[in-house]
Each structure stands twice: as C-alpha cells, then as structure tokens.
Amino acid sequence: VAPAIMNALLYEIRAQAARVTAPASAPALRIFAGTTEGRLLCEWASGAGIPARAYAATEYGGELLGELPGIEVHAGRLDEADIERGFRLDNGELSGARIVVDATHPFATLASGNIRAASLAVGARCLRLARPVEALPKGVVSVASIACAARFLSENPGRALLTTGSKELAP
C-alpha cells in the first residue's frame, strides 16, 4: 500500500479517535490484520502512538504482528457473534470499538462480512483496507473450491498449481 494511502488512513483514524473516548484497556481502534497491509497498519499505528487491538485468524498471523507498543494482539478465528462480543463489555455496553479496519485478505469474504455486520451492530465505523485484486494471466483456470479443482483435473489432463487459504486445509 502506498505511503500516501496509509497516511490518509491514519489521518482518518486519528480524526475519528479524537472524537471518541474509550477505556485505556479497550482501544477505540480495532484492526483485522490478515495481510501485509494490516501488519503495516499496525506498525504505523503503533509508531503514531495510536493504541489498537489487532486480530489475526491464525497463531502464525498473530506471531507476524509481533509485539508492538500499544497494540494488543488476538490470534484465532472469530465469527460475527465473537467479533461483536469482543466489541462489548461483560455488561453489554460498548467496550471502546469505534473504528474498525478490515485489512483481511481480498478473498476472505466471510470474514469481511462478519466484521462489517459486527461493526454495524455496535455502531462502529468500518473501513476497508484492501489490496487490488490482479487479473489472472491468460490461460489460468480459477475454480471455487478444492473439490471443484479435483473435478476439473479429473476431466482435463495437465499440470496444476493449487493455492488455498489455511482454513481449507485439514487440521
């Protein structure tokens, strides 16, 4: 992500954060950081002195975020209800989540939908930080699932490169 875009996003976050109050234990900024862009945003927020809670879907993603001053990291998959619960205190009141940045992978549509819905439920502003999706090279075949890939390969001879997200792999 270009520095100008990141600076504009941080400016928006800083402006929003100045308008809300949140307990120190529950930062107003929440970053769903499943990409390099999300990690960079966490680093920039930390460097700018903006406390945040960052979320990664996997332990590995949480490790990549590392230990940044002012950034609390949660590693593990969350559904919509889990996300909304994380935005609230035990008594049901909003715990500080006012600005939510969805920096998940462009193909993580379920996660993005859950983030958007939970943000809406608590009245938080949800911003999407997405890398552009590049066009596939000529001759590349894209399928919807591993099962579709297996079916395609059984009917079409040749070599294949199968790429998939970690949640599609067996534990």
Quick gist of this model?
The protein has six helices and five strands; from the N terminus they run H-E-H-E-H-E-H-E-H-E-H. The chain has helices at 3-19, 36-47, 59-65, 80-86, 109-122, 146-155, and strands spanning 29-32, 52-56, 71-75, 99-102, 125-128. The two termini are 32 Å apart.
The number of helices is 6
- Output the radius of gyration: 18 Å
Structural class: alpha/beta
Order of neighbouring strands in the sheet with most strands: 3-2-1-4-5
Provide the succession of SSEs. Answer: HEHEHEHEHEH
How far apart lie the N and C ends? Answer: 32 Å
Would you kindly provide a written description of the structure presented here, covering whatever features stand out?
It is a single chain. With 171 residues, the protein is α/β, with parallel strands linked by helices. The chain has helices spanning 3-19, 36-47, 59-65, 80-86, 109-122, 146-155, and strands at residues 29-32, 52-56, 71-75, 99-102, 125-128. The chain has a five-stranded parallel beta sheet, with helices on both faces. Helix 4 (80-86) packs across helix 5. The longest helix has 17 residues, at 3-19. The radius of gyration is 18 Å and the shape is elongated. The mean pLDDT is 81.
